[in-house]
Amino acid sequence: MTAPPPRGAVMLTALTLPPPVFREGEGPGAETPLATRHLPLYTAPMHIHGHAHKYGDHVDTDVIIPARYLASSDADTLAAHCMEDLDADFVRKVQPDDLIVAGRNFGCGSSREHAPLALKAAGVSAVIAESFARIFYRNALNIGLPIIESEEAARGIESGDEVEVDLEAGVIHNLTRNQDYTFPPLVGPAAELVAAGGLRPLVAQRLAERG
After folding, report:
1. 59-108-157 Cα angle (round to 5)
2. Which of 8, 134, 176, 199 could be cross-linked to 161 through a Cys-Cys bond (beta carbons 3.0 to 4.6 Å apart)?
3. What was the pLDDT predicted at 53?
4. Candidate CATH numbers 3.20.19.10, 3.30.450.20, 3.40.718.10, 3.40.50.1220; the one for domain 40-210
């Protein structure tokens, strides 16, 4: 008998595959869909180490990536304008593997898939918040961006803090303040999505395994 997951563990059951996005002039016969090209097959780290960028409650998708840039699905373009209406210096400050920390209802507003893609393309390795808008939560996991709900961590971590996250153990270490916080660990399909780098790479991996 398979052991039940830890109490509170994050699990997904029904996953949907969005249609591929191609550059102009490309099509189903082209080498690689655009989203996959910018998010290549790789094993995402289940251990994260970076610095925090902290924001408040109700950070909506309109400030994560403003609507004026939604005509493009190019990850580099989205990354260049990520968070600019909330923090004009974000793209200049953020470094690969950094984390965003926020309050309640992160990712509220319209259900644009561009928002988590912009964060990931900008170098954000995970988002820690008190709570998330449900559609953003699903969209983020579908592109392999770890989403962590922890009220304690969201309140205890400040901008600039050096943070380590163990997604499998469900532990956040704040190295700057010598504090630890816990959260429901990633297990099952959610862990598979993050480890594969998103739904597209995971599906490609499963198809390759079938031969």
Report:
1. 40
2. 176
3. 98
4. 3.20.19.10
